[in-house]
Design a protein that fits this description.
This protein has 372 residues and is an alpha/beta fold. It has twelve helices and ten strands.
Length: 372
Amino acid sequence: MRRTHAEADARLVVARPRLPVAETILPYLQRIDEARWYSNFGPLLTELEDRLSQRFPEGTRVITVANGTQALALTLMAMELPAGGLVAMPAWTFVATAHAVLQAGLVPWFVDVDEQTWSLDPAALAARLSQAPGPVVGAIPVSPFGRPLDLAAWRAFRETTGIPVLVDAAAGFDTADDARLPLVVSLHATKVAGAGEGGFLATDDADLAAKVRALSTFGFRGSRDSLLPATNAKLSEYTAAVGLASLDGWPADRLRFLRAAQMLRIGLTGLPQVEFQPGWGADWITSVCCVTLPQDAADAVEASLAAQGVDTRRWWGLGCHASPAFAHLPREPLDATDRLGRRVIGLPFSIDLTSAEIGRIAAALRQALSAA
């Protein structure tokens, strides 16, 4: 099908989120109208948590929270780590991870990632612990843009070092199915299964789950007495309605994301300089497409793509540590992170990416790389 002039001239945006349409949410809204229960762990939220828990082994508790950042912060608080202690975390992550650590009264310690996996290596971290600038009381490995982590290796790290581990799998909804380490997933509108805002903790630790629940609702635990300093970070029934509609559509949506990713991979086959994350669009899916470009080419490629009407984004910038808010925090040498920050860009990607748009991305990249 030929594109119209308007389609050809329109900017190709880097992200085009899509939540469930009104007709799929309506039955849940009608249930809210009938029950007249709008927040405070109503029937829809209870159903959402139950359905999310079914994605994990029996015995897993799922606790929903207002967003993924709050889920991380409240879980760290519930873990009762020593105040002011260091939490080892990758510099190659979104700023939310560091904000959550600070909110929990702890100190991020920025550690370099493995350049091939884009994630912390538990063995390398274990070897660096003796050189940490203070007591390390926790570790947060991050699933980079949804790529699965070696959770068995992280469980071994916890057993060997005694250091508690919290997994930041904000973009990892597709493959999140193991709660033997506490794991947080985002339900933001930009994620593959969104609810607009929201996130959840999945854990097999019933006591930890109960503490996070209390921390998210004024410190209440079965009474109107506030038992501990806490906050209000609940999800409403309306957010739960969107989340339930997302779960209803997830099997079909996953196939559409896979199809779009595989089409994009095929479309860029003739550009070996553009490297996808291993397994992206084959073994796992996510809502963004991040690629690695040749060293020192990213700036010129982005400028050329922008001039051709193709938007890009450095989703994690040059790394979390580069933000002014974290300039004072301790860090290891971050050579791999610095190289990734200079080489990784986000290309346009969405669940409904068309073959015409893929052709446009490929042609723009070809032109940009030839000039870089």
